[in-house]
Design a protein that fits this description.
Blueprint lengths: L1 E8 L4 E4 L7 E3 L9 H7 L7 E6 L20 E10 L7 E6 L13 E10 L4 E4 H4 L3 E4 L7 H7 L7 E6 L20 E11 L6 E6 L13 E10 L4 E4 L7 E4 L7 H6 L8 E6 L20 E11 L6 E6 L13 E10 L4 E4 L8 E3 L7 H7 L7 E6 L19 E11 L8 E3 L7 H5 L7 E2 H13 L3 E3 L5 H12 L6 E2 L1 H4 L16
Antiparallel strand pairs: 1-2, 1-3, 1-5, 4-5, 6-10, 7-8, 7-9, 7-11, 10-11, 12-16, 13-14, 13-15, 13-17, 16-17, 18-22, 19-20, 19-21, 19-23, 22-23, 24-26, 25-27
Function: PPIases accelerate the folding of proteins during protein synthesis.
Protein name: peptidylprolyl isomerase
GO molecular function, one term: calcium ion binding
């Protein structure tokens, strides 16, 4: 079958002009041809867009009879022919692959939803439509009658990123009706197609674990708070968003609807330090509407995730003992003065700070609010030379605000070693008895029995109690300073000596509540 424009004449003037009829001539060439033999023979071998001048003698035209009043008998006819189109009833959709990704994990199948760009043209090269001119993909289902039959067939088997040239004969396109003013009847169509996206409404989230640290001590569950980095891209590789570009993790709760459903699902079961590639179909992402100018409607999204850390708001400090001495006579507790070494890092291994950065290890009194709560807790119950690894959730560390060099909501990992331990006294005390105090106390304190105790005698008595293990001074403060302060509290008339009457328990003159007295 051919579709031609022609001008025909016998000498002059033209007796027929196909353009005068409003549409080109369409007819079959060969066995069942309904055109005059000379024209039938003259168009054979023509190419689309080829123009021929065909001279036909009378015996291959209308012969001695002519044709009505238009063509006289024995007329030699001259046809000026332009071939616009040709096809055969046996033709099928022709597919030529122009480019195809090497790693093609999925191809288009019937009932899939696809997004593609296309340029549509006639065989003569005239462009009749283009999605690129609208800067928007054509989105539709395949194999459900939403497309012309030839396009339904031509899209099958395509991969995302693949480019095809699809030639569709008229009877698999718009046939004798054409389409509007751009596609004439009986037109063969050529589509240059780039497949941007494909999914099926039955698709679920697809998770590819790319790297997982060993051992994985814990996996994320619904209700956990997670920090992760991500790159978000479309199936054609175009990146639409990245946490790395903001130099900040994305922080959210898992399974509570704060992120798209597909990511909510994909984050469950991850380990700290794990890398995952997650493919999210539109019905589990932003659906038909997309999201602003960033994400088009019905877009499949691919997220490359790196899990930095996660925790649960109910988490406590996790303590792992690395080394413990065989002999452990004393363990640290609140109010003890300790010296310790530490390294602090994020769960992904990022080093934050270390005691090795300073001239000497730090000293601190436990339970006095001098440390973040989780570290204070993790340092208690330790033996000297014991080493621990503790994991501190953010609500027991620096919380949502973070600190200098510490991101907000960060889980911290501490490597600890207890170097020294001095047992302490309860908060507010300077001295405590570890055994029953002497009874009566004043005669024991008045070592020369002169009925008065000056500072020197008082200091000697208290130091003796400490040396013999019957009492304990507040650690971390010079003992002479402590003893001087204790002495002043007992020397009520400030005459430089303590008498037996002054040693008796004071009673607050305002409310008669006994004052706190170490002795």
């Amino acid at each position: 079958m051919i579709r031609i424009k022609y001008t025909s004449l016998f000498l002059s003037p033209p007796f027929s002009l196909s353009l005068d009829k409003g549409f080109p001539f369409v007819g079959q060439v060969g066995v069942e041809s309904k055109v005059i033999p000379g024209l039938d023979k003259g168009v054979q071998g023509m190419c689309v867009n080829e123009r021929r001048k065909i001279t036909i003698p009378p015996h291959l035209a209308y012969g001695v009879l002519g044709a009505g009043l238009v063509i006289p008998p024995d007329a030699t006819l001259v046809f000026d022919v332009l071939l616009l189109d040709l096809w055969n009833k046996e033709d099928k959709v022709q597919i030529r692959i122009l480019h195809k990704q090497q790693n093609c994990k999925r191809t288009v199948m019937p009932s899939d939803f696809v997004r593609y760009h296309y340029n549509g043209s006639l065989l003569v090269g005239n462009l009749f439509d283009s999605s690129n001119l609208r800067n928007s993909t054509y989105d539709t289902y395949v194999g459900q009658g939403s497309l012309i039959k030839g396009m339904d067939e031509g899209l099958l088997g395509m991969c995302v990123g693949e480019r095809r040239s699809i030639i569709i004969p008229p009877f698999l396109a718009y046939d004798d009706k054409g389409y509007g003013t751009k596609v004439p009847p009986y037109a063969t169509l050529i589509f240059d197609v780039l497949l941007v996206d494909v999914f099926n409404v039955k698709d679920d989230v697809k998770v590819e674990v790319q790297k997982i640290p060993q051992p994985c001590r814990r996996r994320a569950v619904v209700g956990d708070f997670i920090r992760y980095h991500y790159n978000g891209s479309f199936q054609d590789g175009t990146v639409f968003d990245s946490s790395y570009s903001r130099n900040s993790t994305y922080n959210t709760f898992i399974g509570l609807g704060y992120v798209i459903a597909g990511i909510d699902k994909a984050l469950q079961g991850v380990c700290v330090g794990e890398w995952r590639r997650v493919t999210v179909p539109p019905h589990l992402a932003y659906g038909e509407n997309g999201s602003g100018e960033l994400i088009p409607g019905s877009a499949v999204l691919i997220f490359d995730l790196h899990i930095i850390d996660f925790h649960n708001p109910k988490d406590r400090v996790d303590i792992k003992v690395i080394y413990k001495p065989a002999e452990c006579n004393l363990i640290s507790s609140a109010n003890d003065l300790i010296m310790y070494r530490y390294n602090c890092s994020l769960l992904d291994g990022t080093r934050l700070y270390s005691s090795d950065d300073y001239p000497e290890p730090p000293r601190v009194t436990l339970g006095q609010g001098k440390l973040i709560a989780g570290l204070d807790e993790g340092l208690q119950g330790m033996c000297v030379l014991e080493r621990r690894e503790i994991t501190v959730p953010p609500h027991l560390a620096h919380g949502t605000n973070g600190a200098s060099g510490v991101p907000s909501n960060a889980v911290l990992l501490f490597e600890l070693e207890l170097l020294q331990l001095q047992k302490g006294v309860p908060e507010g005390f300077l001295f405590i008895w570890l055994q029953d105090s002497p009874e009566p106390l004043f005669p024991a304190m008045d070592m020369n029995q002169d009925q008065e105790v000056p500072l020197e005698e008082f200091s000697a008595f208290i130091k003796l109690q400490v040396a013999e293990g019957r009492g304990r001074l507040h650690p971390g403060i010079d003992s002479d300073v402590i003893l001087g302060d204790m002495f002043k509290k007992q020397d009520r008339n400030a005459d430089g000596k303590i008498t037996e009457d002054e040693l008796n328990i004071n009673v607050n003159e305002d409310n008669e509540v006994p004052k706190h007295e170490e002795l």
